[in-house]
Amino acid sequence: MNDELVLSLRHVTSGYREGGPFRKGAYQEVLHDVSFDVRHGEILGLVGESGTGKSTLARTILGMVRPDRGEVIHYTKRPQMIFQDPYSSLNPAYTVEWSLEEPLRIYGKYDAAERQRRVREMLALVELPEECLRSKPAELSGGQRQRVSIATALIQRPRFLIADEPVSALDVTIQAQILKLLRQLRQELDLSYLFISHDLNVVYQLCDRVLVMKQGRIVEHGTVDDIFDHPREEYTRQLLAAAE
Amino acid sequence: MKRMNGYLKAGLLLTGFMTLLIVAGYFWTPYDPSAMMAGPKLSGPTLHNLMGTDNFGRDIFSRVLKGAGTTFAIAAAVVAIGAVCGTIIGALTGYFGGVVDEVLMRLNDALTAFPSILLALVIISVLGPGNKYNVVLALGIVFIPSFARVTRTAFASLRDVNYVKSARLMGAGSGRILMVHILPNTIQVLLPAITIGFNNAVLAEASMSYLGIGVTPPDASLGYMLSEAQSMFTAAPWYAVCTGATIILLVFGVGLIGEGLQRRGREVD
Prior knowledge:
The structure holds two protein chains of two kinds. Chain A is α/β, with parallel strands linked by helices. In chain A, 36% of the residues lie in helices and 26% in strands.
């Protein structure tokens, strides 16, 4: 693991105004002066209670929300995202094969045969049988859907992936399988992750470093061992106590 | 293909039968629909004239076949205009939102506030009455708001769903997201809206022609024939009954399909 960076956030502050297009309401700050780096090859955990702005941070990184101040610097192209709910992350109108091929069609650089080859290669990487290709999402289990979502996110070959609570909606046994898969994929495809979770046990199993977020601020950061063994902040201790 | 339910089966059967009659009517009718003396004047239903004859001795069954064809074609064209324009407007406003959405939807509210027949009357009087294409255009415009509303809601609800977000992340353009990623998922609300719209269009055309501002001779539609039948209701009640029954069967069949589609949609959810 070298220290090359895949993402930097510098003093990112983000918020929204309440009200519709004609009325401007009060300004709500969601992220406050957030700075951190994601290093090449690492899995960076982001923990905190719900409503602390974790998802807004993900959306800001992906450019769905424009930061009001500060900057988001990407060192890789086309970062992708895996969502929590595997039921809404696949288009119910289409087969798995279509959903997997669509990012390549959008990318537009490969002919049909090459797209097919890449779809099958990616399907093997996420350890799904070829029969799945003809299924609609409704016919798959939660774990299978999450595998398809991961494959869809990875088929454009991003180097950096944001996973927003990717296992929270799954059974514990399935969780373990998906976490194992994410670890394997990091090795095989040379990926870096920002792994967002409220579940500290999952973060402990998977991540290299951890950011602790509270009310839009990064209150503590360090390696997994640092944070879990020697938490400095009271808030982190509370989170840890709640997870036991 | 998803499961069929009883409503859908019955509706498809009835509508299929009516469509068959209408299509057959385009190519062949027992008598020329406007030929006088196809049988005795004001004759009741007989084996020669299945639905009897009118005061000129014209064969009512032939006229009903022809008239149902006109009504069907007008309703289909009206729904096509309403659904296509409504879907485009609804898709754009629902997906993009913002000021354009607010303005268009208030305009929509304003249009919906008028009774639709009244609105169609106004448009007809501007375009000029007595032409079936103007009837189609007027009713088509009147039908846009309801479709726009339905599709707007569907597109707005799917705008931020995860698979749309990830399509955006993949670099899909707005056009592709609207047409390829969202539109197929709105079919479930669009199809019932189309069936309901079709029925409303049949009834609207019938009432406009009945009021004399719709189809004019030599074209005959079911509504026009109903207004003709009214003047000879005591002498030839079968005329009004057969024409009215045809309208009812046409609307009932499509209504069953709509109900079936809605029930199937609920089952899927």
